[in-house]
């Protein structure tokens, strides 16, 4: 085999891997309008929501939390500071739904360098029911939110969660974030889970409280800088699995800037790098850039016209991705393919940036992620 053939075959292998992930995820995923799984038992559930400040869709996401179709659930809103402007919004919304048991818990329990985990501690301890959902405040809960999560629980489950499904983008950069979240990250996460490699996602996590309490409780999620990484490893140690809901829950985005997308993706990338380095390292091979470069090198070495080779690779990458979004009812617009291209151009730079330590901002909290997991530490605010 000559070098030109080797490059061409390497390109084909990456394209085939990309297509396989789409096929596997497509078989695992249900469309967004599919009914939730049927379940026989509906035990009471506690929903712990860490909140901070007013976000783009706060009024709607709050209202949705009070309109869930479930016979018995409580809402525990966790706020670090009594002066947070979100508190009056919660009080106003709760007043419209007096039949829903609601508590606002205020306080800052510093058990880790993770501000979200710190905020959840008081909610976990106050939860009255065995089944507890840790839910981010920007999740747009569907009416059957609890049933989707409970319906995802299996005999070998240690945790059921959902990836965020980007929706309602305002502007091109928000379209780019949709393409990061949906047909890239959610797709690979569902493909991995279908092959037995389930990873937790902190947006929505359903726990059986007695099980976690018997293994260190919520404090055990302090073992890693990100609570979802700690959750994944804890569940694996127990010989259990992380499972995903049949269809992910929406996160409405609104307007985004390029800098916000870069910062957020770099933060997540660096967290993956320090918590799961063996899985993170091959991420440099994802997206259209690696197979495209390999195909172009092979074409140049074979004196093949470059344009047809490039178009063939791009079509093989992006048409199946568009098909996945179309069949599942995910965000798709005239800007989606250009957004995919921009996303894929960013991915190698984000991967390279993740290997450099430094400060990140996590919802107003400055943290340091070093070049190895042992260097994780909280940085002084404002540094």
UniProtKB/TrEMBL annotation:
Membrane topology, from the record: Multi-pass membrane protein
Entry's transmembrane regions: 292-319
Coiled coil: none
Location within or outside the cell: Membrane
Pfam families given in the database record: Glyco_transf_21
Record flagged with keyword Membrane: yes
Main localization (coarse): membrane
Stored Gene3D superfamilies: Spore Coat Polysaccharide Biosynthesis Protein SpsA, Chain A
Record's keyword terms, sorted: Glycosyltransferase, Membrane, Transferase, Transmembrane, Transmembrane helix
Signal peptide: none
Recorded GO MF terms: ceramide glucosyltransferase activity
SUPFAM superfamilies listed in its UniProt record: Nucleotide-diphospho-sugar transferases
Pathway: Lipid metabolism; sphingolipid metabolism; Sphingolipid metabolism
GO cellular-component term (any): membrane
A GO biological-process term: glucosylceramide biosynthetic process
Full protein name: Glycosyltransferase
Origin species: Shinella kummerowiae
């Amino acid at each position: 085999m000559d070098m030109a053939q080797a490059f061409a075959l390497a390109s084909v292998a990456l394209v085939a891997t990309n297509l396989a992930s789409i096929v596997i995820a497509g078989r695992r995923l249900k469309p967004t309008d599919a009914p939730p799984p049927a379940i026989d038992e509906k035990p009471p559930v506690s929903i712990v929501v860490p909140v901070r400040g007013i976000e783009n869709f706060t009024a709607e996401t709050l209202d949705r939390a009070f309109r869930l179709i479930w016979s018995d659930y409580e809402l525990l809103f966790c706020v670090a500071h009594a002066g947070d402007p979100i508190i009056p919004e919660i009080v106003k919304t709760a007043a419209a739904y007096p039949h829903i048991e609601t508590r606002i818990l205020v306080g800052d329990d510093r058990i880790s360098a993770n501000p979200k985990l710190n905020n959840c501690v008081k909610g976990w301890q106050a939860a009255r029911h065995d089944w507890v959902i840790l839910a981010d405040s920007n999740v747009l809960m569907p009416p059957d939110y609890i049933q989707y999560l409970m319906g995802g629980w299996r005999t070998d489950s240690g945790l059921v969660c959902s990836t965020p499904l980007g929706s309602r983008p305002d502007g091109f950069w928000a379209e780019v974030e949709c393409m990061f979240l949906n047909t890239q990250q959610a797709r690979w996460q569902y493909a991995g889970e279908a092959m037995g490699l389930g990873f937790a996602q902190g947006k929505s996590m359903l726990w059986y409280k007695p099980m976690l309490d018997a293994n260190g409780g919520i404090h055990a999620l302090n073992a890693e800088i990100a609570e979802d990484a700690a959750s994944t490893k804890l569940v694996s140690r127990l010989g259990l699995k992380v499972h995903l809901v049949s269809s992910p829950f929406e996160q409405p985005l609104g307007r985004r800037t390029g800098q916000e997308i870069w910062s957020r993706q770099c933060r997540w990338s660096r967290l993956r790098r320090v918590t799961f380095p063996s899985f993170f390292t091959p991420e440099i091979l994802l997206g259209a850039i690696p197979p495209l470069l390999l195909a172009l090198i092979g074409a140049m070495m074979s004196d093949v016209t470059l344009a047809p080779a490039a178009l063939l690779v791009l079509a093989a990458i992006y048409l199946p991705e568009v098909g996945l979004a179309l069949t599942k009812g995910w965000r798709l617009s005239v800007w989606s393919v250009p957004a995919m291209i921009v996303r894929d151009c960013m991915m190698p730079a984000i991967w390279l940036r993740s290997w450099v330590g430094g400060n990140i901002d996590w919802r107003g909290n400055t943290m340091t992620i070093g070049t190895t997991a042992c260097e994780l530490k909280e940085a002084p605010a404002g540094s």
